[in-house]
Predict the structure of DUF3626 domain-containing protein.
Amino acid sequence: MQHVATLSAGPPLEASLRITLNFHPDRIAAGQPLLQALGADGSYLSQFVTGTSNGGLTAHHGGDRWRWEHTMFGGAYDDAPARVRPIYGALNFRHKIVGAAPRFGSAHLRLTAAALARATFCYPDSHLEPTAFAVASRMSLIDLALADQQDELDDYIEAQVHGEVRLDRDVEALVLDPSYRNTDVETAALQLPCPLEWHPGFRLSVAELNRHPEYRGQRYVDLGARLAEDAHLTPRLIGDAARSGHYDQQDLKRVWHYLARFGAPKLSSPTITNGADERAASYTT
């Protein structure tokens, strides 16, 4: 934190903003469904621990992620145990209902305000080896990001949360896509020690998918069309394909990019589920 603070400038971050951790809630981690693994451990773990990622898999000693962290944090984590390394998310400065970085998944954990004080930030993503950094007390990255012209999936300020991220202490809510209602994902989510909310949902018609072959490529358009049901693609359908073992994971990631880019919901308030209770949630828009 001290090392990044010396590289930072600007005014304090607005206290109402939140860090979100986007992920796919129906994937397998440590041999079990991801939300069950989260519930068993009680904490959200980094790629160095899980060996899984919705981005690149370079979290090992000497790998790209290790090298980026060495540079960003002045070598502070070089010999640190995997479990104490930072957790990656994004600052939701645009107040996106689906989380700050849907590139990485349809679900997100919205962290508490307290997490801001132990986070560092960079723009653009750390895999691009940025030179612009911030902490909550010195935040110049929002103006930088607002002035930049980026694809919507790249339009985020990366956040690194230092210290453990516990579900019962550091998470305001788990926010899911409605395609997971009445599924094992919802059942597992209701067992977690944090509130459950629902955003309006990602949903992409095959007709709209077919209009964008240049975005990731015709082969991914064709694959998305094959996975669709009732001429529409949803996160659950891609997750089912991912767990089936019949498809290349990188191909499915690009199909997800289509859904996240062209099938994102309109901005509106999520709903909270608390047992049988369901009511409108307040959400800054």
About this structure: The CA atoms of residues 204 and 262 lie 7 Å apart.
